Amino acid sequence: MPKFISTPIDDEKLRCLFGEISPLFTAMEERDFTTKTTTKSVEKLLNDAEILDTIETNHENLRCVTFLNEDQIWTSGLTGEIKCLNIGGVLCSTLDTRSGDRPNDIAVDSDRALLYSDEPTKSINKVKNDQTEEIIQLHGWIPFNLCVTSSDDLLVTMYSDDETQSKVVCYTDSTAKQTIQFDDDGQPLYSGNNSIKYICENRNLDICVADCDAGAVVVVNQAGKLRFRYTGHPSPTKNKPFEPYGITTDSLNRILTSDCVNHCIHILDEDGQFLHFIDNRELESPLGLTVDKNDILFVCEYEKGNVKKIKYAK
After folding, report:
1. Comparison of pLDDT for 118 and 46, the residue scoring more
2. Which of 12, 198, 228, 285 could be joined to 272 by an S-S link, Cβ 3.0–4.6 Å?
3. How far does Cα 21 stand from its chain's mean position?
4. d(CA 46, CA 29)
5. What is the reported pLDDT for 38?
6. Phi, psi of 37 (to 5 degrees)
């Protein structure tokens, strides 16, 4: 059999043939520069917000909005009644929670079934073809806000009965497969009380939570590792503390969160850098948010009970 006979390797000749890898610090500097350039180019896409339409829901204190399909939305407020309306504001149907109390949140899964979290029964329920089924029953914890992920899992924010702990749990069907509660130093990621913690999944699979009591948007990656906290942006016209409530993301991975007390929406890039305010004088007490496939923003006005349709980008 033939034999391979090696010769001494000349490192300089190899570099001439193949090139070389730059030092790590240089690569990092180039990556940061690219991020800033991308951020600036994205920011140029943002317009002064234009309110396209106002949908009257007749809810008392509107809190949540989610899409059933392109033409219909589900909405909920401080009563046990959940309403389905078309985009023109015409009431299509209503349903009542099993407990008769307000739902903490609503969501729609890939089968177009409605999901809602019910505080008195510590349960999450699924409504399809006018039939209600309890799919998750909690013990020692109370479910709050919901998000159906791109893989059709369910993310749930919840707090303990004694209101000292909060966490995010990911469910596949009715089975808990992941719990997100602490950072790498063992410190809580979220404020430990019963405050609203709206949640959404970004298209890069980050999990974004608006923690109003902590005054922060907390973003972790798919593995539950903390990526960043956004605690607001200085502005001479926003003189009240930042209290994020609703949260959603758009087709460019931008994060939008409602600042109810300052009557505005903050827009961030996927790495937590502030880009822009949606600061329209007609917008009052924004709470729940969602974005359609064309990046049109739907905003719940808590006190007025209206859903505002807003165009914020080219």
Report:
1. 118
2. 228
3. 38
4. 27
5. 47
6. -65, -45
